Amino acid sequence: MAQTSTEPAAGRIRLDKWLWAARFYKTRSLAAQAIEAGQVKVDDERVKPAHAVKVGMQVALRKQALSWVVEVTALSDKRGGAPDAARLYRETEESVRVREEAIAARKAALVNAPTISGRPTKRQRRKLQEFLDEA
């Protein structure tokens, strides 16, 4: 995606708009909240949602238990499809490796986790009560 900015300075765009256009957050307000909470850093510094993003800057963000470190490759204030959004940044190899390890660890933990399907049935409650009464 080419540089499609309607901002007065065509080489800059607000950080919250860029994060929204790059599809890291569903809304600009969610992006702004994440920035204010310190979950997004530009060149290892906390910034405000209106911080101007330029091509070549490094953006680090945390979302839930995952983190990304990306380099800005293009600017856009329009939210497009996923292929268009992927052209706005390039993720570092270290970031990809760390994120994939975290996803693999999360999946491994889910395999061994007990599955609880809601409230126990009447039969299960009786068996549990019998077990507790034996002691």
Fold and architecture overview:
The protein is α+β, with helices and mostly antiparallel strands. It has one domain: RNA-binding S4 domain (Structural Genomics Hypothetical 15.5 Kd Protein In mrcA-pckA Intergenic Region, Chain A, Roll), CATH 3.10.290. Helices cover 40% and strands 19% of the residues. It contains five helices and seven strands; from the N terminus they run E-H-H-E-E-E-E-E-H-E-H-H. The strands form two sheets. Strands 3-2-5-6-7 form a five-stranded antiparallel beta sheet. A two-stranded antiparallel ribbon has the order 1-4. A hairpin with a 2-residue loop joins strand 5 and strand 6 (66-72). Helix 1 crosses helix 2. It is elongated, with a radius of gyration of 22 Å. The termini are far apart.
Distance between the termini: 69 Å
* Rg: 22 Å
Domain module tally? 1
| Overall morphology | elongated
Total number of strands:
7
